[in-house]
């Protein structure tokens, strides 16, 4: 495999995945629509770094646009596809559910249809731990996730189902990765860790939905990107695989660590817990160990320190980043 078609290339996970692919000698065709769901300056920062590499080619295209995708597939010899383009975020999916289905489900269908036509045989799909709502922990991939509680989760479930049908009908090798709360430098400003670091550093009150006892299986970005590349390089047939830290931490503990690393105490504002959010997440990663030879390497304390250090090094221009 030489050339990888990577959607969401200017996104948080897409950027780090592209970096690793380039380091390993792949040619990367990156696609991103650079939408303004969050401050586009972060996406431009990531993209500027990627475009320094001669084996990275970028197209500003939306995966909802079948015709534009078709032109790219016809102009390039593509060996594998990693679909990281997605409308993310549980809460915003309640405001505009239509765009979530168009991007996450129909966009996935567009890619698979072109893969079928061009006989591209490897597909990696980013999915989500949000599908496990209401299931017993730790979350295993064979749990019956048939009752998604947000349009976001439902749109990802639709993408998984479409991918299975193309595996069954056309023999496309599909690896679905269910990610668990990814964090790290150059992250998403709609997610708690980015927001908490910025607010605490700037002396602004932080907003906590609930009492802070909710827990997440936080997973460092480098670990997630390495697992994504391993999925590309592994023939699986059709498999759903969790990528998570394998240890849930309470949000209150995360806040305490950020306070310690920045050297400031947080002023806290508590808001009602959102019914579409999960109280806790915890990944069973035995399948990832067995099939991908993958497990996380960066513990939360180290990963948060790296994230805070990056923020401090870049705080002058990050002050201007607008939080969604």
Task: List descriptors.
324 residues; alpha/beta; Rossmann fold; 17% strand
The total of helices stands at: 12
Largest sheet: 7 strands, parallel
Q: What is the overall shape?
A: globular
The name of the CATH superfamily reads: NAD(P)-binding Rossmann-like Domain
Describe this structure in words.
By secondary structure, this protein is an alpha/beta fold. It has one domain: NAD(P)-binding Rossmann-like Domain (Rossmann fold), CATH 3.40.50.720. It is 43% helix and 17% strand. It contains twelve helices and 13 strands. The strands form four sheets. Strands 3-2-1-4-5-6-11 form a seven-stranded parallel beta sheet, sandwiched between helices. It has a two-stranded parallel ribbon with strand order 7-10. Strand 2, helix 2 and strand 3 form a beta-alpha-beta unit. The protein is globular.
How do you describe this structure in short?
With 324 residues, this protein is of the alpha/beta class. It has helices spanning 12-23, 40-50, 66-75, 90-93, 97-118, 151-170, 192-201, 221-232, 251-262, 286-292, 300-313, 315-318, and strands spanning 3-7, 27-32, 56-60, 80-83, 122-128, 173-179, 182-183, 206-209, 215-216, 219-220, 238-243, 249-250, 268-271.
